[in-house]
């Protein structure tokens, strides 16, 4: 079966006073129907820009998709006009942002906002749209949904606002939901509830989820497949089992070593390790592998030649010179 979404050779760059910032630089990502794909990496690795490029939610200018295709259900989204993209947004691809207050309209009730989406995209009359909105708020476990539908965003707690955001993103039953660090702004206990809710909704509606996160623990809990990004590029891609059993790229290994392990006794517990250094500024990046300045295995080839993604096991690809055929 054809994938639901195929990102091919995507390059999204930003014009800055210091030069062109290559935030996303030749990214290929595939999402299959009904799966949860996690895109993981530190801040500044290009994962949010990749996600936002799908629906052209980046500020243009200074941002610009300079190359590549984003094929959704057989149609390239890159050349679409803003009104054509409006149809795709919400109806076919829902987006859940990190901080719902920035995407919910503070002067409209949550009911008005969700109902508006249903009226616009599904042509529902007001009465039916409001009834569906209450139904959605119940599904995302907002207590007393019939009354709370008339409340404004500021009258909800952070966790409840994120539930409202999920209800809004899912109202038109999209085939794909993109969730960009949806729990970052929340307390730890609420984070787990929101991830469970997202998983629950995914199963109920049969949609695919692209979950952007910097937390490997979240990846282990939620993903079926994982894409690891570093400095605007994909450096490893695998099923979640393959990635955790055989992490192959030194950056992925570093991310996994930085996860706290509660399953090991004190004798076997190794120290948590941070990855030294930081993500490079992506204006005129140095040739070769972008991870080289932080990599414990770097060799002269690494600073001369950029490694390309290659298959190292069925469904498992990485971009690193280690283990390459001579
Ligand atoms: Fe390290 Fe070289 Fe592999 Fe880059 S290509 S991750 S520098 S070993």
TrEMBL record:
A GO molecular-function annotation: ATP binding
Recorded source organism is Bradyrhizobium lablabi
For this protein, the record's NCBIfam families field holds: oligo_HPY
The UniProt keywords, alphabetically, are: ATP-binding, Cell membrane, Membrane, Nucleotide-binding, Transport
Q: A GO BP term, please?
A: peptide transport
Q: What is this protein called?
A: Peptide/nickel transport system ATP-binding protein
| SMART domains registered for this protein in UniProt | AAA (SM00382)
Q: Does the keyword ATP-binding apply?
A: yes
Could you confirm whether the keyword Protein transport appears in this record?
no
> Where does this protein chiefly localize?
membrane
Q: Which CDD domains match?
A: ABC_NikE_OppD_transporters (cd03257)
Please list the residue ranges annotated as the ABC transporter domain.
Answer: 5-256
Q: What family does the entry list? A: Belongs to the ABC transporter superfamily.
Q: What does this protein do?
A: Involved in beta-(1-->2)glucan export. Transmembrane domains (TMD) form a pore in the inner membrane and the ATP-binding domain (NBD) is responsible for energy generation.
What are the annotated GO cellular component locations?
plasma membrane
Q: Which SUPFAM superfamilies match?
A: P-loop containing nucleoside triphosphate hydrolases
Topological category with respect to the lipid bilayer: Peripheral membrane protein
Where in the cell does this protein reside? Cell inner membrane
């Amino acid at each position: 079966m054809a994938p639901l979404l195929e990102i091919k050779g995507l390059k999204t760059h930003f014009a800055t006073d210091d030069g062109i910032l290559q935030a996303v630089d030749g990214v290929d990502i595939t999402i299959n129907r009904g799966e949860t794909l996690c895109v993981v990496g530190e801040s500044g690795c290009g994962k949010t820009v990749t996600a936002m490029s799908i629906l052209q939610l980046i500020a243009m200018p200074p941002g610009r998709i300079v190359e590549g295709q984003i094929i959704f259900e057989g149609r390239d989204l890159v050349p679409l006009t803003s009104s054509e993209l409006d149809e795709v947004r919400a109806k076919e691809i829902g987006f859940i942002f990190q901080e719902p207050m920035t995407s919910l309209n503070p002067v409209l009730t949550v009911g008005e906002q969700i109902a508006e989406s249903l009226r616009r995209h599904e042509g529902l009359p007001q009465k039916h749209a409001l009834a569906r909105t209450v139904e959605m708020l119940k599904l995302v476990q907002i207590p007393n949904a019939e009354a709370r539908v008339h409340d404004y965003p500021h009258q909800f707690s952070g966790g409840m606002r994120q539930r409202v955001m999920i209800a809004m993103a899912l109202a038109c039953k999209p085939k794909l939901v993109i969730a960009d660090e949806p729990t970052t702004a929340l307390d730890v206990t609420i984070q787990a509830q929101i991830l469970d809710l997202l998983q629950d909704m995914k199963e109920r509606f049969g949609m695919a989820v692209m979950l952007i996160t910097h937390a490997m623990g979240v990846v282990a809990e939620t993903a079926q497949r994982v894409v690891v990004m570093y400095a605007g590029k994909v450096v490893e891609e695998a099923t979640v089992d393959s990635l955790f059993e055989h992490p192959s790229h030194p950056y992925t290994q570093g991310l996994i070593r930085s996860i706290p392990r509660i399953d090991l006794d004190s004798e076997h517990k190794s120290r948590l390790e941070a990855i030294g250094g930081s993500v490079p500024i992506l204006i005129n990046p140095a040739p070769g592998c972008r991870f080289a300045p932080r990599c414990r295995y770097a060799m002269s080839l690494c600073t001369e030649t950029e490694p390309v993604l290659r298959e190292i096991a069925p469904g498992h690809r990485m971009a690193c010179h280690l283990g390459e055929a001579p």
